[in-house]
Amino acid sequence: MSNTVSVKSALLAFLGLSSLAIAQPLLMTLGNGATFFVAHAAAAKDVFVFAFVVYLLPPLCLTVVMLLLRVVSKRAAALFAAVAVGALASLWVLGLTTELATIAALGVAALLGVVTSVLYLSRAAVRDLLQILGCVSPSIIMIFLFFTPAKTLLQSQESGAAGATSAGRNTPIVVLLFDELSQVAITTEQGVIDAQRLPNFARLASMSTWYDNAT
User: Fold this and answer.
1) Each residue of 6-57: pLDDT tens digit?
2) In this structure, which long-range contacts are made by residues 96-103, counting pairs with CB atoms below 8 Å and at least 24 apart in sequence?
3) Over the range 45-64, which residues count as b (16 or more CB within 10 Å of their CB) and which as e?
4) Each residue's pLDDT tens digit, 60-115
5) Which of 13, 51, 137, 189 could lock 130 by a disulfide, CB 3.0 to 4.6 Å apart?
6) Distance CA 54, CA 111 (A)
7) How many CB atoms lie within 10 A of CB 121?
8) How many CA atoms lie within 13 A of 106 on its CB side?
9) pLDDT of residue 2
10) Quick one: which H or E segment has residue 118?
């Protein structure tokens, strides 16, 4: 087993595995829907900052802890790096084993984590492979920023221009969203709003455009 692990090697390993275990699932989930950013009125810079924080914060925190341990003992720092690598590998595998029962998934993830930790300390080839993974990990950021629906939020200039145009208008617009409001419950057999049961809905429909086939 290797008693020392270079900080550069550990940082790249942390970047690579953290990208797979944390950044990729989180960014792809939020990016493919993008409703999280819309709900929080996120600007283009907010999306950029969020993506890079998710990508960089976990590996940088682990690297700082490793640097502090190296002051005391290089062996302790190497052991910490191996444990951290194993934990990230376990977390990644846990996300891939959603089809398994909880106990089985935890067992598989824990076993792979232990094996990864041991191989990381004992095999230079494994450390080299994880360094390569860390070098290509920025591709996850690129995919999120340019190949998911979140990319539309990066068009800050166009959004700002559109906002400036609409801000000068005085037409009041109100949008009401009703969750699971069944159309059958508010209409008659003829497909019009039941004015006896819901007079205010009927009055609103009489002065509005009723899109009864909209979904």
Assistant:
1) 999 999 999 999 999 999 999 998 888 767 787 777 788 888 899 999 999 9
2) none
3) eebbebbeebbbebbeebbe
4) 999 999 999 999 999 999 999 999 999 999 999 988 877 766 888 888 889 999 99
5) 13
6) 26
7) 21
8) 3
9) 55
10) helix 102-122
